[in-house]
Amino acid sequence: MAENQAVITALQAVLPDMQEADIASKLEAPKKHSMGDVAFPTFTLAKTLKKAPQMIASELVEKIDQSAFEKVVATGPYINFFLDKKQVTADTLKAVLAAGQNYGQNDDGKGANIALDMSSPNIAKPMSMGHLRSTVIGNALANLSAKNGYNPVKINHLGDWGTQFGKLIYAYKTWGSEAEVKADPIATLLKYYVEFHDKAKENPALDDEGRAWFKKLEDGDPEAHKLWAWFREESLKEFTEIYDRLGITFDSYNGEAFYNDKMDRVVKALEDKNLLEESQGAQIVDLSKVNENLTPAMIKRTDGATLYMTRDLAAAMYRKDTYDFAKSLYVVGGEQREHFQQLKAVLSLLDLPWADDVEHIPFGLITFNGKKMSTRKGDVVLLKDVLDDAHELALKQIEEKNPSLADKDQVAEEVGAGAVVFHDLMNDRTNNFDFKIEEVVRFEGDTGPYVQYTNARAQSILRKAGVEVDAKNITLDDAATWDIITALNAFPETVRRAFLNREPSVIAKYALGLARTFNKYYANSKILADDANKNGRLALVAAVSETLTASLSLLGVKAPKEM
C-alpha cells in the first residue's frame, strides 16, 4: 500500500542489509486500531542479530526517525507505526484525484500480451446462464490484465464444429423449414436439436445419420457447408446482442472450425518427437512420463478423425505464433480440469518452452433456483431472459426511489445487467453458487446495485455542492475519514492481488467494503456543512466515487451517476 512506503523507508534506514521488497513482504496490519496502522515483526531478525525479538524491537525504535509518523512504539516483538493521518490523508486524496480512472494502474506487464479463451458458446444454441461465468470472469480478467500493464487479447473460441452440426443439419432437412428458422433462428434450431435427441432415444440409427452429415460437412459438401455457415451467422447475431448488453467485445471469434486446416502440424510435431502411439486403432500420447495420474491424450480416433485435444493443441500453437503471449488463460469450467492438464502435458512433451505459460482458470457451477441446467434436455435458462428480468426488477425499484429520473430505461439496463455480472463475480471463482434473481437485483445488501447506488449517492453530493473540488489544503484526520483513506490506499495492491490470483471476487469484495465504509461515513458526517473542512470532505467523496467507478469498471459493470 502507498502509505507503507514511509514505513519501509524508515526501517531500511536502520536495517541497511534488508532489501525494500523483503521489508514490504513482512509488514502487517495490527489486530486493533489502537495498536497502530502498520506493524513490523522482528522474529526473523533474531537469528542474525542473536538477540530476543522484544529487545530488537525496542532497540530499533530508539534508532528510527519518527518525524514522518505520529509515533513509533515497540509492543513486544513488534514495531508499531502510527502514521501521520493528516499527511497520509492529504497525499492519498491528491493521488486518487490526480489519477482519476487510472488510480491503481501499474506497469507490471510492460505491455506483454495475455490471451484469454473465454465465453465460447456453441453456435445454433442460445446463450444460457451456463455461459455467463466464462464470459464475465474472462472479461474481468482481461480488464485486470490491462490494469496491471498487460495487453489482453480476448478470444471467443466458438463451438462451431462437431457431430452436433451433422445432427442439426439432418434435423433441419428432415422436419425443419427455412421460414420457421428465419422467423426465430436460435430458438428454432434449439428446438430441432432437442427433438433430434428425443427421437434418437427411440431410434438410435438417427445418430448414424447425424454422423454421416457431419462427415459431408468435413469433406466440404456444398449444401452441408452452406447450412452450417447460415446457422453460424444467425448465432453470432444473437450472441452479439447479449455481448452488447454486457458491454463485452472480443478480439477474435476464431472457433473450432478455424483450426480444421491447422491440425496436421500438431500430428507432424508429435510424430517427429516419436510421441504418437497406437492404442486400439486410435492415436494417443502417453502422458505418464509427465504425470502418472494422467490418462493418455487422444489425438486421432480409430476412423482417423481428430479430436478436441488435437484442435486445442493447434489453437495453442497458433495463438503463440500470432500473439506471442506471456500467458494464455483458458476460462473454462472446473469439469474440464483434466483436459487442460493433458494439454499442458503434451505441450511440455513437445519441449515447447511456453508450455508453463498456459493456464486453466476453472470455475464452479451455477444453478438457477437450485436446479442444474441442460441444453440437451431442453432445461435451459436463457441469458437474454435473465437480463430482461433483471432490467424489469431494476426499473421497478428506480421508479419507486426516483420516479423523475431521466433515462430511466437506460439506467435500469445498466443496473440490471450490472447486478447479474456483479453477483457472479463476487463469488469466489471456484465456488458453486445458486442464482435467485430477486436477491441479485436489490439495492441493499451484498449486491452490484448497492455499490452502484453508493456511487450515485456520492455523485449526488458532489452535484449539490456545486463547487470544484480542490485537492490542496486538506486537513482531515478524524477516525471515520481514516477508515476510508485506509480502504482507498488498499486499492492498488488489491488490483495487483486480484490479477495474480486470477480472482475477480477480490475486486467485488473490495468494492462492497468501500461502499459500506462510505455509507457509514455518510450517515454520520455533515459533508456539506460550510466550514474549513468542507473541501476536504468533498475531496474524500470524489475519491470514493472514482475508486468505486474504477472497481466496477474492472468487473465490467457500469456506474450510473444517478439512480
TrEMBL record:
Question: How is this protein named in the record?
Answer: Arginine--tRNA ligase
Which parts of the sequence belong to the DALR anticodon binding domain?
451-563
Which SUPFAM superfamilies does the record cross-reference, listed alphabetically? Anticodon-binding domain of a subclass of class I aminoacyl-tRNA synthetases (SSF47323), Arginyl-tRNA synthetase (ArgRS), N-terminal 'additional' domain (SSF55190), Nucleotidylyl transferase (SSF52374)
**Catalysed reactions, as listed in the record:** tRNA(Arg) + L-arginine + ATP = L-arginyl-tRNA(Arg) + AMP + diphosphate
Query: Which compartments is it annotated to reside in?
Result: Cytoplasm
Complex formation: Monomer.
Task: Give the main EC class.
Answer: ligase
> What family is it from?
Belongs to the class-I aminoacyl-tRNA synthetase family.
Please report the organism this UniProt entry assigns to the protein.
Fructobacillus papyriferae
Q: What is its EC number?
A: 6.1.1.19
Name the lineage.
Bacteria, Bacillati, Bacillota, Bacilli, Lactobacillales
Arginyl tRNA synthetase N-terminal domain boundaries: 1-83
Q: Please name the gene that encodes this protein.
A: argS
Tell me the keywords, alphabetical order.
Aminoacyl-tRNA synthetase, ATP-binding, Cytoplasm, Ligase, Nucleotide-binding, Protein biosynthesis
Q: Does the keyword Ligase apply?
A: yes
Q: Which NCBIfam families match?
A: argS
GO molecular function, a single term: arginine-tRNA ligase activity
Q: Name the Gene3D superfamilies on file.
A: Arginyl tRNA synthetase N-terminal domain (3.30.1360.70), HUPs (3.40.50.620), Isoleucyl-tRNA Synthetase, Domain 1 (1.10.730.10)
The short motif 'HIGH' region is annotated over 121-131
